[in-house]
Design a protein that fits this description.
With 176 residues, the chain is an all-alpha fold. It has nine helices and no strands.
Length: 176
C-alpha cells in the first residue's frame, strides 16, 4: 500500500480515470483494502472481537520505538566524554557509526508508522464489521420479536373454542 500521507493524493490519483468505478477497481490500494474487508467479513462476531482485542494490544506496543528514540539524546549525554575523544581520533569511524545509526533510525521510524497505519486500517474494518453485524443481529432479533408479537395478537383475536362436549359429558357424569 502506498503511503499517501493525506487523502488528497489518493483523491487526485482517482480523478485521473474517466469512470469512478474503473478508478476504484484499478487502484491497487483500494483492492487490498477490499480484500482485507472481505476476509474479516467471513468471520463471526466472537472472532472479530478477539481480533479487535489483539489489534488493540499491538497498537499499544507500537509506542516503544518512539520511546527508544527519545532516549538517544540521554545516551549521548552519558557517553559525551568518550564521544569527544572519539571525534578527535577516529572521524571516519564516527561518521560511519552516525550514518549507520541514522539509516537504522529512518528504517525503524518508517516501519513503525507503516505498522501503525495498518493497525488503524484493520482496527477500523473490524470495528465497522462488528457494528454492522450487531445491527444485523439486532434487526433479526427485532424481526423475530415482531413476528412473535404478531402471532400472539392473531391468537388473541381468535375466540377460544368452547368445548361443549366436555361440559355435557361432565354434567351427564354427575347426573348418573
Amino acid at each position: 500500500m502506498k503511503p499517501y500521507g493525506n487523502y488528497r493524493k489518493l483523491y487526485e490519483s482517482l480523478r485521473r480515470y474517466d469512470s469512478q468505478q474503473v478508478a476504484v477497481q484499478r487502484m491497487e490500494d483500494l483492492a487490498e483494502i477490499e480484500e482485507i474487508w472481505r476476509y474479516y467479513e467471513k468471520l463471526s462476531i466472537d472472532e472479530l472481537r478477539l481480533i479487535g482485542a489483539a489489534i488493540k494490544k499491538t497498537e499499544a506496543q507500537l509506542g516503544y520505538i518512539p520511546f527508544c528514540f527519545s532516549t538517544v539524546p540521554f545516551v549521548f549525554l552519558v557517553f559525551s566524554a568518550k564521544l569527544s575523544t572519539m571525534i578527535t581520533s577516529n572521524l571516519i569511524v564516527l561518521f560511519l557509526a552516525i550514518v549507520t545509526l541514522a539509516s537504522i533510525a529512518i528504517y525503524l521510524i518508517h516501519r513503525h508508522f507503516t505498522h501503525k497505519s495498518y493497525n488503524a486500517l484493520h482496527l477500523h474494518i473490524v470495528e465497522a464489521l462488528l457494528h454492522l453485524k450487531k445491527d444485523e443481529d439486532g434487526k433479526e432479533k427485532n424481526d423475530e420479536d415482531e413476528k412473535a408479537e404478531e402471532d400472539d395478537e392473531k391468537k388473541d383475536d381468535q375466540p377460544e373454542p368452547i368445548s361443549s362436549l366436555s361440559c355435557g359429558s361432565a354434567s351427564s357424569a354427575s347426573s348418573s
